[in-house]
Design a protein that fits this description.
It is a single-pass membrane protein. Belongs to the RLP family. The chain is an alpha/beta fold. It has three domains: 9-187, Ribonuclease Inhibitor (Leucine-rich repeat, LRR (right-handed beta-alpha superhelix), Alpha-Beta Horseshoe), CATH 3.80.10; 227-333, Phosphorylase Kinase, domain 1 (2-Layer Sandwich), CATH 3.30.200.20; 340-577, Transferase(Phosphotransferase), domain 1 (Orthogonal Bundle), CATH 1.10.510.10. It has helices at residues 195-226, 232-237, 249-255, 296-309, 340-345, 353-373, 427-432, 437-453, 468-477, 498-515, 526-545, 564-577, and strands at residues 9-11, 18-19, 33-35, 40-41, 53-55, 62-63, 77-79, 84-87, 101-103, 108-111, 125-127, 132-135, 149-151, 156-160, 180-182, 264-267, 271-277, 283-289, 318-324, 327-333, 378-379, 388-390, 396-398, 405-406, 412-414, 434-436. The strands form seven sheets. A seven-stranded parallel beta sheet has the order 1-3-5-7-9-11-13, with no helix packed on it. It has a six-stranded parallel beta sheet with strand order 6-8-10-12-14-15, with no helix packed on it. A five-stranded antiparallel beta sheet has the order 16-17-18-20-19, sandwiched between helices. Helix 10 (498-515) runs antiparallel to helix 11. The longest helix has 32 residues, at 195-226.
Length: 578
């Protein structure tokens, strides 16, 4: 890349790029537009860039913002939100005289807001929300006459909100969840007290904070003792970052209208999920744990740790949490299209073949990340359609990590109690409590079968020794896949795409059987599954683009030689048959 000296714009956003951002990009002297958001990039923000527009949002960047950020003197747009940046913002940020929009939201930044922001006179948008900024809002920001959008919400700011321009045009949502702020009634914060009261508070508050810190430290030490199964490496890597951005119980109560049943989205093994709406009109899902249930507290701990650290477009994201002695809740991204289970088994819901295939690719990609791309392999342990949620664009997100496990010390571990769902549990997990990545692969195979047959593994037709996986395998061997898949996916034999659809579904079911083999050693892994599913989709897309697969063979079989993927799955199917 460093040799593309004429390159002016580069957009690689929303992919799965990993590793560090190479310093060679700094050699691109004509580059003015760089978009790498929505990837899995790690490391720090390069300090050598000189660019107009920079988007590194939604990655896994860590460390502090270098003082060399002041070298971006020509930059007009910088977005490094949704990362894991820490430390304080350097005062050199004031050197960015051309800056129009800056977002540092959803990081772990702390310390005071630099007063040097006042030197960025061109600023129109500034988003510092959901960090851990402390201190007062610099009064010098009143000099930013062009500032139209300001978001300082969900920090730890205190003191009086400035009243001069441009603050007269801001609303309360710019300052929400900064419990130490005060101002007039228009910002919905308490009025500022007289100096005499403030002087007293200077002595009282440190004492209270010290006591709270002591209690929190003792509480955290007790929680650490409970983690008997996690390895030392896992503890080093997983820190509950979500605890740094807590919301209050009162905020959740207001967001859900008192946890009204009309906002209930569903119930699970350890609690209930409600739809909530915050004052800034953001819709969220709020998972409330029933602490009367055994294992609920541990489930809350696990979800906090897992979801606050993993980052992937197909995993549900934690926005915040509420942790009190008698109440535990998680604030998650709201998925307006509900669960895959709803789309498969409720009336008046339908997904076509390509939609179902795309959803399975999304789920497989999430599991591939958990199993192979994260620092410590994570096993979900409870994959099923109700834990697969769909957003506005029908993109799938794997949710509910309440019983997930870290494989910090090897490829497997054993637990005494099995909490997963009947029908989706791998045999070795259900009978012996052995937790491995191959157990998730088995569950994924069952979910694939259910998705394309619309038959649950607990369906009443599966009695005795007959299970969903064996039922599908038997029909594959008999070349009768048409008899098991959802008939709405195929249409009639007169349909010009009938043969290509049948061939596509046969390949998908071969993969599902390869995932759900009885022996863990015979199952494919999620890297293979992702590659195979993508190949199946490409092949099907090509066939439908040219009007389907032409055939004049007996038994209506495809004449052309099967590709390598089908040969692989056929071989595994023969093993299952034997």
């Amino acid at each position: 890349m460093g040799r593309l000296h004429n390159l002016q714009g580069w957009d690689m956003s929303d992919n799965t790029l990993q590793g560090h951002i190479p310093d060679e990009l700094c050699q691109l002297e004509n580059l003015f537009h760089l978009k790498l958001g929505g990837n899995q990039l790690s490391g720090s923000v390069p300090s050598c860039l000189d660019i107009l527009q920079l988007d590194l949002s939604s990655n896994s960047l860590i460390g502090p913002l270098s003082g060399a950020v002041g070298n971006l003197k020509v930059a007009t747009y910088i977005n490094v939100s949704y990362n894991q940046l820490s430390g304080s913002v350097p005062s050199s940020i004031g050197s960015l005289l051309s800056l129009v929009n800056l977002s540092l939201a959803h990081n772990n930044l702390e310390g005071p807001i630099p007063s040097s922001f006042a030197d960025c006179l061109s600023l129109e948008g500034l988003d510092l929300s959901r960090n851990s900024f402390t201190g007062v809002i610099p009064k010098s920001l009143e000099a930013l006459l062009y500032l139209k959008h300001l978001n300082l919400s969900f920090n730890r700011l205190q003191g009086e909100i400035p009243s001069g321009r441009p603050f007269k045009n801001f609303s309360a949502k710019s300052f929400v969840s900064n419990h130490g702020l005060c101002a007039g009634s228009q910002f919905q914060v308490p009025p500022c007290k007289r100096k005499t009261s403030i002087s007293i508070l200077k002595y009282v508050i440190p004492g209270i904070l010290s006591a709270m810190l002591l209690v929190a430290s003792i509480f955290w030490m007790l929680m650490l003792r409970r983690k008997k199964n996690a390895t030392a490496a896992a503890h080093t890597i997983l820190t509950p970052q979500v605890f740094w951005r807590r919301v209050s119980y009162l905020e959740l109560l207001h967001a859900t209208d008192g946890f009204n049943e009309s906002n209930l989205l569903g119930t699970g093994g350890f609690g209930s999920v409600y739809k909530g709406t915050f004052p800034d009109e953001t819709d969220v899902a709020i998972k409330v744990f029933n602490l009367d249930l055994e294992g609920a507290f541990a489930s809350f701990e696990v979800e906090c740790e897992m979801l606050s650290n993993v980052r992937h477009r197909n995993l549900i994201k934690v926005i915040s949490c509420c942790c009190q002695i008698d109440f535990k809740g998680l604030v998650l991204n709201y998925m307006p299209n509900g669960s895959l289970e709803k789309w498969l088994h409720y009336q008046n819901s339908f997904l076509d073949l390509v939609q179902r295939l795309d959803i399975m690719i999304d789920v497989a990609s999430a599991l591939e990340y958990l199993h192979h791309d994260y620092e410590v392999p994570i096993v979900h342990c409870d994959l099923k359609p109700s834990n697969i949620l769909l957003d506005d664009d029908m993109v799938a997100h794997v949710a509910d990590f309440g019983i997930a496990k870290l494989l910090g010390g090897g490829d497997s571990m054993t637990q005494t109690m099995t909490l997963a769902t009947i029908g989706y549990i791998a045999p070795e997990y259900g009978m012996e409590g052995i937790v491995t990545r191959r157990g998730d692969v088995y569950s994924f195979g069952i979910v694939v079968m259910e998705t394309f047959t619309r038959r649950k593994p607990t369906d009443e037709i599966f009695i005795g020794e007959m299970r969903l996986s064996q039922w599908v395998a038997n029909h594959l061997v008999a070349n009768a896949i048409v008899d098991v898949v959802d008939a709405t996916l195929l249409g009639t034999e007169e349909d010009h795409e009938f043969v290509s659809k049948r061939e596509c579904l046969s390949s998908i079911m071969r993969l599902a059987v390869a995932c759900s083999a009885e022996s863990p050693e015979e199952r494919i892994n999620m890297q293979e599954a992702v590659a195979m599913l993508k190949t199946i989709k490409i092949k099907f897309s090509k066939q439908t683009a040219v009007g389907g697969v032409k055939t004049d063979c007996k038994s209506n079989e495809v004449c052309s030689r099967k590709p390598h993927i089908s040969e692989m799955l056929d071989n595994r199917l023969q093993c299952v048959k034997k």
